[in-house]
Structures are given as structure tokens and as C-alpha cells.
Amino acid sequence: MTTITKKAKTDAKSSLAIICTSFKNKPEYGLSKEQEQYISGEIKQHDKKFISLNALNRLVFVVIADTSKNHYTSLETLRKHGAGMTDALNAGKYKEICCVNETAEVDFSLAVAEGMALANYQFIKHKPSAKKQVNSLSAIFVTDAKAGTQHLANLSIAVDATLKARDLVNEPVNYLNSVGLAEAFKAMGKQAGFKVEVFNKAKIKQLGMGGLLAVNQGSVDPPTFSVMEYKPKQAKNKKPYVLVGKGVVYDTGGLSLKPTANSMDMMKCDMAGAAAVGCAMYAIAKAKLNVHVIGLVPSTDNRPGFNAFAPGDIITMMDGSTVEMLNSDAEGRMILADALHYAKRYNPELTIDLATLTGAAAAAIGQYGIVCMGTATDEQKTKLTVSGLRMHERLVEFPFWDEYDELLKSDIADQKNLGGPYGGAITAGKFLQKFTDYPYMHFDIAGPAFVTGKDSYRGKGGTGYGVRLLFDFFSSL
Known about the structure:
The protein is α/β, with parallel strands linked by helices and 477 residues long. Helices cover 36% and strands 20% of the residues. β3 and β4 form a beta hairpin.
């Protein structure tokens, strides 16, 4: 992982990123008269906001921060500029860079450093031939009087947790099954200081988690149910927040085998919600936030083998209700339902689930945000929305009208697990709501959790989407 630390002064030897609203040269930048004139000319004559200068022994970047824009838009632009710097630094085999903030906004230097660090991610552990391709950038220094130790510590934690989530999502199922995912949570719990208890198949049967057990019927690997808890002595909330993550480590669609061409190629990512929950727990505990949070992850793979549950089956869930299973590729809601019912024992302040749940969500807004819906209070929704804007993991709230409940009615069971061809993201959320009796938000991250082409600092593959949003939300409490 790239280190992010404070540096009192820059020097003329290190690569340099200057963040300003208008460029003024300083002796400590170590720029020649010709270099200064080049930078000034690019700004004045070509109205450039991002200037890159190869000074042979180092790279110099100048970023003109546009304070006239929406603040959140400015932060995202700066993150993307940071990603561009990382690409250039690694291409030139440079090891470090210093970010100098000449503006009044501490967020600006943090955003550039964040974009740099996140863009420096690689997943090459299974690629021995890539040893020569290891990124050179290893240290980011921040020169900003307004950036305190806590700012940089929390930024480092958020980056670390996001990259851990990417690792989990990018790991194929032959290296990370449900048991392995639970073990990864245990390891993070030891590192960061939160409790992790993992229920095995016998315990899951004892609890009557019919949804999780049904999805697991086609697999040779056992299911797991991970319970994570971080409870500091001075927690500000009397009732805990509960996070629930969908942990389908691989999804074939089961007997309702995925019909779309190439649709299974990336289905190792179907546990991205679980990764986001576990890694958010890691960040919260690592930063020692004064908030009581519980994470729940039901986990299995979904395959068409053995006694795989079949369309038409009636499944008895943990809460005693029955579900007519009409499509085994709508399996995520089956395992999440049991976890949401389990969450009732905590009488939560708010429960948020994160899941790569529906193609309908991805079709609606693409990879550009999170489809959300639920029964949280207006104040809770506002705080989550602000965190989403600040981290550019934006929330788009869909309606949660009662009419959608009608689409889930079954003739032979309490409800169906499929709502029909319309409003698929919403009927999935409505299905889950039936297993809650507390303030609740459903986050469908099917669009942004895994990208097949490079997306700036989010990279390619697993993005770690949701971790930074949740960490910001709990930090702001």
C-alpha cells in the first residue's frame, strides 16, 4: 500500500503536485524560468486546469482548482487528476511525490492524494510474469498546514480498507469460497480490533436460516454466516447500526443458469456487498470511531449441482414465512432476508444492506452510482446522501410505493422471490423490506461494484464501492 504522510516543506528533488487557484512560482518548487513560463503559458493561453511537466529527474504537475464549481464536483475532478499523476509517475518509475496545497481548502490536497493512492492499486498476486510491472510509486507526501495528523490517518485507513475490499472482490472463488471469506473477516478483526464470530452450517441449520441453506443446496462448499461487532466504550449511539452484505462468492444463477453471453465471467464479484461491509467494519474499528456497529454477512456460492433448489420450490425462511422460489438467479435476496431477520435482535438504529442484487439497478443508472430505497428517516437519508456526494459514491433513491408489494404476491406461499419484468430493482428491495421491522436502507451496488474497463482511480475489476461512503457516514456521526 502507498503511504500517505505529512511533509513540512517540499524540495526541488521530489516530483511535485501543486494545487492552487492561480499559479505563482516559489523558490522551493525548484522550477527554472523556462519551466515557469511554460506552465503560465499553458494556463493563460490554453486555459488548462491540469499541466504536466517532465523535468527529467522528476515530474511536476500543476492543478488549478475551480472553486466556482460545486464543491463535490471539484473534489472528484481532483481525485481524477491524482489518478492521472499516478499513471505518469509509474510510467516513469518515480517512487514518491509531494502534494503542495496553496488553496484554503484542506479537502483539495486530501482528494488529490486519495485519487493517487487509489489509482496505485494492482491485483497481480496470481501473475508471476508481472513482477516487472509492479508500480513504483510508494510514498505520497502532503504539504498542507491545514491537513492534520488525523486527516491523513483517516485518509490512509479509508484507502487501505477500499483496497482490501478490491482484493476480496477480485479473488476468484477457487481461492476464496465462503469459508475463506469468513476467515478474511476474522483476520481483519484481529488487525483492526473488532469481534468476529462465524456460524457454520450446523449453527445455520439450528437458526433455521432457510434462505441461506436453500441457495447452498447446489454447492459442495458449506455456507457461513459472519457476525462482526465493533463496540467502543464511549459509543455515541445507544442502539447499534447494522450493516448487511450479500456474500455470494460465485453465482452461476443455479438451475436458472445465467442466459446472457459472458454474464458469468465476472460473477466472482457477487460478494462485493459482503466485502464492503467487512472492510467498512475494518475502517471504523481501525479509526476507533465512537460508534457501535454490527456487520452481518450470509455467504455461499450458487450452483446447479446436487439438490440445487429449483423454480417452484417453497422455502421456509428464518422468520417462518414461506417463499415461492421462481428463479434461482434471484438468490441474493434469499440469503439477505435471513440476515435482515437476524438483525431484529439488535433493535438497530438503522440497518443498511449492500448487495450486487439486480441487473435492473445496473441497467437504470449504469456504473455511476448506487440505487437505494428504504424506510430510514429523512435525516438518516440526508446524511447518507451527503456522504455519497462527498465520496462520489452517489445515491439515487428509487420509489418504495406499496403498489410494488402486489407484484410479489404468491398463490401458494407468503410471497414470490420474483416480481415480474418491471421495477426489478424495487421489487427486490420490497422483498427484503418484509424481513425488517426497523429503519432500513437497501443499497444495490450491481452497477459500480465491478467494472470491466479502467475507470480512473477506481481502476478495473473490483472497485471497493461503498466502503468510503460508509466510513465517511460513520465518521460524520
